[in-house]
Amino acid sequence: MGRQLFPPDVEEYLHKICLNAILRAIESGAFKPPEERTNLELLQLSDS
Questions:
Q1: What total number of domains does the chain contain?
Q2: Whole domain around residue 23: which residue ranges?
Q3: C-beta of residue 6 within 8 angstroms of C-beta of residue 14
Q4: How many CB atoms lie within 10 A of CB 31?
Q5: pLDDT of 20
Q6: What is the dihedral of CA 13, 17, 23, 26, to 10 degrees?
Q7: 29 located within any domain
Q8: 18 in a domain, yes or no?
Q9: Is residue 2 included in any domain, yes or no?
Q10: Phi, psi torsion values for 34, nearest 5 degrees
Q11: Can you tell which superkingdom this protein's organism belongs to (predicted)?
């Protein structure tokens, strides 16, 4: 991606909050890698 949509400090902040959210989801068990999801779960995700 050649375009920079945000200033570097904002981009760094967004990366940090996304990373923290992902790590919290993994830690709490809310995140399942795609290969562990059932077909029903995948269908529900695609509808939302």
A1: 1
A2: 8-47
A3: yes
A4: 13
A5: 94
A6: -150
A7: yes
A8: yes
A9: no
A10: -50, -35
A11: Bacteria
